[in-house]
Input
Amino acid sequence: MKFPVFPEQASSVSRQIDLLYFALIAVSAVMLALIFLTIIYFVFKYRRGKMVDRTPARLPEMKIEIAWTVLPLLLMMGMFAWGADLYFKVERPPPDALEINVIGKQWMWKVQHPEGNREINELHVPAGRNVRLTMASQDVIHSFFIPAFRTKQDVVPGRYTTEWFRATKPGSYHLFCAEYCGTQHSGMIGRVVVMKPAEYQTWLTRGQPGSTLAQAGEKLFRDLGCSGCHMGSSIVRAPPLEGLYGKPVPLQSGQIVIADEGYIRDSILLPNSQISAGYEAVMPSFQGHISEEQLLELIAYIKSLRR
Amino acid sequence: MKTLAPPTPITRPTKPPQNYLTEGGTTLKSWLLTTDHKRIGLLYLYSILFYFAIAAVAAALIRIELITPPGDMVTSQTYNKLFTIHGVLMVWFFLIPSIPAVLGNFVIPMMIGARDVAFPKLNLLSWYLFNAGGLLALYAIIFGGVDTGWTFYTPYSSAYSNTHVVAMAAGVFIAGFGSILTGLNFIITVHKMRAPGMTWFRLPLFIWSLYATSVILVLATPVLAMTLALMALERIWGLGVFDPALGGDPVLFQHLFWFYSHPAVYIMILPGMGVISETITCFSRKPIFGYYFVAFASVAIAILGFLVWGHHMFVSSQSVYAGFVFSILSFLVAVPSAIKVFNWTMTLHRGSISLETPMLYALGFIGLFTLGGLTGLFLAALAVDVHVTDTYFVIAHFHYIMVGGMVTAFMGGLHYWWPKISGRMYPEKLGQLAALVTYIGFNLTFFPQFIMGYLGMPRRYHAYAPEFQIYHVLSTAGASILGAGYLLPLIYFIWSLKHGKKAPSNPWNATGLEWQTPSPPPKHNFEEIPVVTRPPYQYSPQLGEAMEHG
Output
């Protein structure tokens, strides 16, 4: 039987998170020791029957109370700031990341690489490169958890969530679903394979995908008839999509939203909820006609359209 | 203490004096229709032990299954139902009513010098609502079970689970009304029924903590009821509130659920803190150190407890800035808890300490609660929470609070008030042994789970990766010791009913009003309503010593 005590450190943040973890252990150990030893000391010293001074002590009660209110408070605020600062790093993906899509469903993980490679319950990534996962769920809430990277994010149906990491050490690591998702929840596991960049490139080409994700999206774009309104000369009825991704979009309501993955997703599934200024609400909803995977392919295509 | 003469007057009438166990009859009907708060407390005791037994069997099966990595003893579906049964019954049908409804019902009126609670009939109704809910939950369990976990997360619960979700939720919903009425009853009792001279700052701290608990029960439980009702409506009629396929928001459910369930955690610890304040003073013969701070810490915990629910949702896709707010508030709520621990510790200073069973449980509580609270800081620290949330680290943390804290306090309280409840003493040596056994068993069960959690073992896993096995084996070994530690008191409590030494009215020489009436007390508690002239816990360590030396 193995006896591991500490998880592997395999991402850029694992060391920093472990450091905070050790700091918390240190604080806890000191506090516990302080309280335990005091109690044990008092219990031995003031055990009934022992001859000791028991006259009520004249202690500055108020000062003591204030001291043990304020000191822990300061300590807590320090720990809060440390944890929050790191959280900011862990939660906000850097801009230059390699983008990979993840779709959770009962009970498997499906992965789409921009080059067109697809995987199930495995995720191959290059070491040393920032990777940003855009994640969708086809059914219930799942959670994408890689203990060795110290990162985890719920995958929530009806929206995209993101998770990012920079793997530092080639190897194979556990991937767990951490949010209870039904009968085979504990079978919704897999592995994350971190490869040296060159090996990763070989792996990508060995997969021999027929087309890239954006190309698959382009085919869908024509098959579903999107191009009829959003392309070429017909853009009087519908806004053009070239250069749309990441740009602010003025809406009919007067609001301005940023065209991120979530916005494009909503525009396909719930087109009437956010109408671009200057256009009629004529687009049909594609809810129920398009899978999460296809949706992500379409988004990859729209993101690839430059002006 | 052993040499102390029973202080009750001796003029014995020809008939033995009546007490609440005999007065009004001993028939089943006289119990089922009783409005006596003491009898209702005992009715709750029997009921929660029944639900506890079922939930404990579920826990035992879970622990046996987890000895080996593959899911080989029960199917995944059965495993999921087992942890749902364990969670639902332990939270709503054991822990929440444990100290408030059993010990609270029994001692609150006596502690404040009243003859009963403000609304005795409502009190009985609470018990019936509680059990109506419990029976519905049992129905759901017997006729197929539920596999959502006690958290009922949507859209799994409302659209995907094929089990008896609605019946189970309805059970919790109905039992919730029992909680609300109990809370209401206690609040009004404390406001209106105090004996002459029992001012707010002469109240024992048990009353302060149960008062804070009652406020939470009244304010938070309706939110749970609404949330479960919306979930059930979505499941039955497709009302789109939480399911994104119907236009709902699944994370909204989590906000509503934890808006109740985080304060509920304080329902499950504040009463325990109250018990500790009673026992630690009595067995160290000292007034509590910093009465006002301990009392207001209860109130502060109750208030802050309402503002921290989002710390369950740091990886739920909630905004980063919301995370900051919930994190800082969660660190803040740790301060009043720490204040209590420091004050209890300081109470021991220059005391006259004796280690009877209730005191052992109290000291055990301080240790386990402190560790549980400190590991809560890990979960409040945002970046660390991302790694450990939904792992065994969380499981270990909340078991340290709820079992190490609340159940330990409940056992301590039960031993402390057992002479009053039954009129008999429990066997002291066995009591001390049981306290020690549960302490060892508990730590062996749950401490390994912290390590396993940080290693990445996710919760609610039927099968798991082999490297976690050593910790599961340790945990299961601990659980069997813990089980023995809980079984032992059950046996000697029942034994003591017939064979225990007869208890004097005040076996611990405690100061509370509940000890100024015979054991067991008469139906209406006091011959004459006492008049209070002093603050609580007027103990003297020197007198404690004098007791020892005769």
